[in-house]
Design goal:
Layout: H1 2-13, H2 15-38, H3 44-69, H4 77-113, H5 128-141, H6 143-156, H7 160-163, H8 176-193, H9 203-234
Helix pairs in contact: 1-9, 2-3, 3-4, 4-5, 4-6, 5-8, 6-9, 8-9
Length: 258
């Protein structure tokens, strides 16, 4: 439990940034939900939502980068945004590839599951528990990619394709606490699925329950990424950055800090 405790200690030390990241993420998600309800994505409100979402992603990436360089040293939002901007396009391409692979594997798992017992219809039409089961199995299959490729990119300040050169050095067997937290996050998804819905609860308890779930989910996600970054940093991978272009952030040290 030492790694989990140390990661939580980082969150406590940098609580202003963590509070902003989780709170801002909630506002962006809430705004997106309103747009979806009113189908307003094509209006100026949709453009505003996309802009806020991009800012959220860049601040998130900037925070992870800042932790990899100095775990307990707080940074201004401006610095986080600057650092995150440096990594943004790398993660756009990586995210697109990951999403496509995720969809393909999930569909393949659903095709296997629906054979016995027979399930009619597509994955979109299946019961929520079936969809979540297929997605969760896919995430477990891709768990190593999900945990370590982003961490390698952020810690080494390298391109997405370069991170695969060091992928074999990251072993799940040596990151058992990280694996446990990741599985706990998946388990919480199933718990949420069977909790009372808005139609079964008064409005106030439902709001409290929803906010608690959102906070727990996002806090666990942040803990997972921080633990992955700390794990990669502990490997002390030597990466030659001398061939990088002039747009580099120039923050990488040839030998990573723990």
């Amino acid at each position: 439990m030492n790694e989990i405790k140390e990661t939580i200690a980082i969150l406590k030390a940098r609580w202003p940034e963590v509070t902003f990241i989780i709170g801002f993420g909630f506002l962006v998600s809430f705004f997106g939900g309103i747009l979806e309800s009113y189908q307003a994505y094509r209006s100026w409100k949709g453009v505003t939502f996309i802009a806020l979402l991009l800012i959220e992603i860049m601040i998130y990436l900037g925070f992870l980068r800042a932790v990899s360089l100095a775990s307990n040293k707080r940074q201004s939002l401006r610095n986080l945004l600057y650092k995150g901007k440096h990594f943004f396009w790398r993660f756009c391409g990586l995210g697109l590839v990951y999403f496509i692979v995720l969809v393909l594997i999930t569909q393949a798992i659903f095709f296997i599951i629906k054979i016995a017992p027979p399930i009619n219809g597509s994955l979109k039409e299946a019961a929520p528990v079936v969809r979540l089961l297929c997605l969760s199995l896919t995430k477990l299959i891709l768990i190593k990619l999900y945990l370590f490729i982003p961490a390698l990119i952020i810690v080494l300040d390298c391109e997405a394709h370069e991170s695969f050169k060091f992928f074999r050095q990251c072993k799940l067997s040596e990151a058992k606490e990280l694996l446990a937290v990741y599985c706990a996050k998946i388990a919480i998804s199933f718990v949420w699925l069977f909790l009372p819905t808005s139609g079964e609860l008064p409005i106030a308890p439902h709001i409290i329950l929803s906010l608690s779930y959102y906070f727990t989910w996002n806090l666990l996600t942040l803990i997972i990424f921080l633990m992955a970054i700390r794990f990669v940093s502990s490997l002390n991978i030597v990466y030659d950055s001398t061939l990088k272009d002039s747009n580099s952030e120039n923050l990488l040290k040839h030998k990573m800090e723990d």
